[in-house]
Design a protein that fits this description.
The complex is a heterodimer of chains A (109) and B (115).
Chain A (H helix, E strand, L loop, with lengths): L8 E5 L4 E6 L9 E6 L6 E6 L2 E4 L4 E4 L5 E6 L8 E7 L12 E6 L1
Parallel strand pairs in A: 1-9
Antiparallel strand pairs in A: 2-7, 3-4, 3-8, 5-6, 6-7, 8-9
Chain B lengths: L4 E3 L2 E4 L5 E6 L6 E7 L5 E8 L2 E5 L7 E4 L6 E5 L8 E8 L8 E3 L3 E5 L1
Parallel strand pairs in B: 2-11
Antiparallel strand pairs in B: 1-3, 3-8, 4-5, 4-9, 5-6, 7-8, 9-10, 9-11
Chain lengths: 109, 115
């Protein structure tokens, strides 16, 4: 089971770019990397998923180096509403998702 | 944009009572899940469901729990005799297919409070 490690918390200010790095040294060949966002008392919300190199959507970018042992979620120009917990997950092929403790991002004005 | 819906948003029950939590997955999705999150703790997998049967379950999903897809749209989680420690947010999720790149989409959750 691929284990992920990410910072417990991060602080930022409105308008800044935030990069959250996740390490997953034991990632398997078929694993995808998925990031979710969760607000208090709400369900996890899918942000972005990738396998290698760079993926970008309207919300974020995901950078994955060639060895795939880490990934970085990039949130451009954060706002107060981006304050949430961000989870990095590596799919091991099992259907059950394993959530860690995530990274608690606090955006300040 | 299609989304997973859950009812009720909040359920309060007495210890020992049965509760049924309801979910409507995204319409073309084939895989369904229940997760729970005790306040301040991690999101934990309970059970996955495909083709009208359980495909995987965690050790949390004991005999007190059951799942059902009674019709073409609803997916339910029943807790037969609730305990205080069942108090948590319960999230339903659905997934279109079995590919590793297929994403699970979560509902807003049901807050279950057992008194």
């Amino acid at each position: 089971l691929a284990k992920t490690t990410q910072p417990i918390s991060m602080d930022s200010y409105e308008g800044q770019e935030v990069n959250i790095t996740c390490s997953h040294n034991n990632i398997a060949t078929n694993d995808y990397i998925t990031w979710y966002q969760q607000f208090p008392s709400q369900g996890p919300r899918f942000i972005i998923q990738g396998y290698k190199t760079k993926v970008t959507n309207e919300v974020a970018s995901l950078f994955i180096p060639a060895d795939r042992k880490s990934s970085t979620l990039s949130l451009p120009r954060v706002s107060l509403s981006d304050t949430a917990v961000y989870y990095c997950l590596v799919d091991t092929g099992r259907r059950a998702l394993t959530f860690g403790s995530g990274t608690r991002l606090q955006v300040q004005p | 944009e299609p989304e997973v819906t859950q009812t009720p948003s909040h359920q309060v029950t007495q210890m020992g009572q049965e509760v049924i939590l309801r979910c409507v997955p995204i319409s073309n999705h084939l895989y369904f899940y229940w997760y729970r999150q005790i306040l301040g703790q991690k999101v934990e997998f309970l059970v996955s469901f495909y083709n009208n049967e359980i495909s995987e379950k965690s050790e949390i999903f004991d005999d007190q729990f059951s799942v059902e897809r009674p019709d073409g749209s609803n997916f339910t989680l029943k807790i037969r005799s609730t305990k205080l420690e069942d108090s948590a947010m319960y999230f339903c999720a659905s997934q279109e297919g079995a590919s590793l790149s297929d994403t699970q989409y979560f509902g807003p959750g049901t807050r279950l409070t057992v008194l």
